[in-house]
Amino acid sequence: MHSADKEKTMKVGYIRVSSAATQHIERQEVLMQELGVEKIFIDRVSGKSLKDREELANLLAFVRIGDTVIVESISRLARNTRDLLSIVEVLDSKGVEFVSKKEAIDTKTTSGRFMLTVFAAIAELEREYILQRQKEGIAIAKMNGKYKGRKPVAVDMSQFETVYRKWKSGQCTAVNCMTELGLKPSTFYRRVKEFEGR
To answer: 3-108, what's its fold?
Structure first.
């Protein structure tokens, strides 16, 4: 069924299994049938990166206002709290509800929305703890004279000069140059400054 053909609201299921664990699909499919799911999107990937999940992207493009996305458990949808909140935010922006059977989360209910608020708070705490540990680690390393800072990104200067010349002559944009060299904007412009100052 194409999204253009879709008129009524639907229960839409999402199933993810690793490519080596296809036997778990049947169990999730049975659950989807029991919950009255009308359309299912299935990814057979590890789930480490959202970018690798083509069927999840198709699901997010397919759903419309009033639909409900159903998963067996949060772990099938997201590998961490940040990814979960990001996906639910997309669904919410489209007027789509979210249900996770295992954790009994349903965004149509007050308790379900509260649970997501708790997850958001936990994710924020996790970020703060990570940053704090990084700062403490750097401070200790500096005290012991062991902190060297980030290693500079290695750049082939002959390749950089070729790309630099193309950029200066208007043959390519700065963004294209950064992509070709695999550099972040800050690193690219730092290299430009170093090159021009030689």
So the answer is: Rossmann fold (3.40.50)
